[in-house]
Design goal:
The protein is an alpha/beta fold. Helices cover 42% and strands 15% of the residues. The strands form three sheets. Strands 2-8-7-6-5-3-4 form a seven-stranded mixed β-sheet, with helices on both faces. A three-stranded antiparallel β-sheet has the order 9-12-11, covered by helices on one side. A two-stranded parallel ribbon has the order 1-10. Strand 11 and strand 12 (316-320) form a beta hairpin. Bound molecules: pyridoxal-5'-phosphate. Pyridoxal-5'-phosphate is lined by residues 58-60, 63, 84, 136, 140, 169, 171, 197, 199, 208.
Length: 350
């Protein structure tokens, strides 16, 4: 059997989720009549300490809507250079919101108010004004790094003092909260909107949520409809979403421990290197340059040993742990990676 560490999106619904899907009480959500979805939206809002929540089919749609709700055409959105909104959403900031991203590079993915404030612009004959700030926590491509509450709060305070809203791309915000030992409500308290995924480490088959003020979510609901995201008997998706929300955060620490195990083992292998300080949650970015293989070649060699991991750059491979990968399988992935590195280095020696 393949050990699939490509992403935590590959998690399959649990037997309990499948039962809940089969038995879900449903109605037409475009009329606001799906009782299961209404419960999910209310519960998400409650957990985050917000007035309202909106179910969206994907995290990308949640971010797209948030960027639109907070901006007007011709503005700039400040975000990190490797962020999902900038790199993996098919330029929706430009396509849908009519805004440019003004990126700030942070090697560890963690923006601070000190790094942001100099990039905020006011309308002038040359400059488009800043419309909002988007933060990613955890930061995917930086290796699942965590922005702590103090740093996030300072960004929000600084932005709000200038009248700028802050959106949190919290696809994996539950991983961040677990790593920090705080609640998601506390961690994201000052953010104007938060998007988080039910479909990643929390294990639901489909769906993400956007939470915020009642007024913001009312407007977001209209944009969801415009994007073709008005769904009907969506309670069949909300039912596993509720289980994901209630039961799954408590077990994310296991995924973090497995990522740690993998990273610490990989760091000891000749030809491989990983920045252990950045392995804070369920993601390990492995630099394979020392083996002479490209990220893609390393990924293919792993696949021959029944381990799936994506190349994320010319020289790096990413491993993402999740509940469908056990501790034993994490050890097996470590052994396979070690074997790939050793065999390549052995073959290259005279
Ligand atoms: C996965 C992810 C999203 C949303 O992805 P979808 O596949 O559209 O659900 C958004 N932001 C980050 C940081 C992600 O990792």
């Amino acid at each position: 059997m393949m050990i699939d560490l490509r992403s935590d999106t590959v998690t399959k619904p649990t037997p309990e989720m499948r039962r809940a899907m089969a038995e879900a009480e449903v109605g037409d959500d475009v009329y606001g009549e799906d009782p299961t979805l209404n419960r999910l939206e209310a519960r998400a809002a409650e957990i985050f300490g917000r007035q309202a929540g909106l179910f969206v089919p994907t995290g990308t749609m949640g971010n797209t809507i948030a960027l639109k709700v907070h901006t007007r055409h011709g503005q700039e959105i400040i975000c990190e250079a490797k962020s999902h909104v900038m790199n993996y959403e098919l330029a929706m900031a430009g396509w849908f919101a009519g805004c440019l991203c003004r990126t700030i590079a942070a090697a560890d993915g963690i923006l601070t108010w000190a790094s942001i404030k100099g990039e905020v612009r006011k309308l002038s004959p040359h400059w488009a004004p800043t419309g909002m700030i988007a933060i990613e926590n955890t930061h995917n491509m930086a290796g699942g790094t965590v922005t702590p509450p103090a740093v996030l709060n300072e960004i929000c305070d600084g932005a709000h003092a200038l009248g700028l809203p802050v959106h949190l791309d919290g696809a994996r915000v539950f991983n961040a909260a677990v790593a920090l030992g705080v609640s998601v409500g506390e961690l994201t308290e000052k953010c104007d909107t938060v998007m988080f995924c039910l479909s990643k480490g929390l294990g639901a088959p489909v769906g993400s949520m956007l939470v915020g003020s009642a007024d913001t979510i009312d407007r977001a609901r209209l944009y969801r409809k415009r994007l073709g995201g008005g769904m009907r008997q969506v309670g069949v998706l909300a039912a596993p979403g509720l289980i994901a929300l209630e039961k799954m955060p408590a077990r994310l620490a296991e995924d973090h421990a497995n990522a740690r195990l993998l990273a610490e083992g990989l760091a000891r292998v000749e030809g491989l290197s990983t920045d252990l300080a950045r392995v804070q949650t369920n993601i390990v970015i492995l630099d394979v340059a020392g083996t002479g293989l490209s990220g893609a070649q390393f990924s293919r060699a792993l696949q021959e040993r029944s381990v799936l991991a994506n190349a994320v750059s010319e020289t790096a491979v990413r491993f993402v742990t999740h509940y469908d990968v056990s501790r034993e399988q994490s050890k097996a992935a470590l052994a396979a990676s070690t074997e790939v590195a050793r065999s390549v280095l052995a073959a290259s020696r005279p």
